[in-house]
Design brief:
about 200 residues, mainly alpha, Leucine-rich Repeat Variant, about 70% helix
Amino acid sequence: MNPTAQFDAFRSAIAADDDERTEPLALKLTPADEPALIELLSSPEENERWWALRALAACGSANAVAPVAKGLDDPAPAVRAAAALALAHLHRRHPAEVTPLLDPLAAHLADEEGMVRQIAADALAMCGDDAAPALARVLFEQRHEGARTRAAGALRKMATRKAASILYALLNDPNPLVRTYAYEGLDEMGLLETLLVTLQ
């Protein structure tokens, strides 16, 4: 499929390094542009890969999920972060396709780059209850304390009953930051007072 005129304008804006022009063009792309965007994910240029992920987050179909997920292993931290966020946006439209990839996304809670770690946590929180099992595996099966802390933070941000059931189990966790997120998350959901009353 030949690239559309919109895609050509989008790629020209990337080449000009004009983010203010590129952003609105990225949001105007349609599923007709998806094949060209997926091809752009293999570009040697980091900026092109980043913008391809940004655009697919907005217009990608279920077919874009697997190519986007490959971006989690990109050598460039900014691209890994963009892939994490794109998966969260794709999850809103295609949860069945994205949910099996949430464990690889959760693995980036231990990424070597702080920006990627934080965006991975935010992305998992955006996926809601579908991400709860992956976050629970990080918390109960891993020893990477930084990843465990970010997983607890994501559950706190999620603020659902499913997240609360995991947070309850963390109230006596040996990691003080994990305990703090558990207490704060349950308190913010109005569940900590209920728990204390039950224990009295």
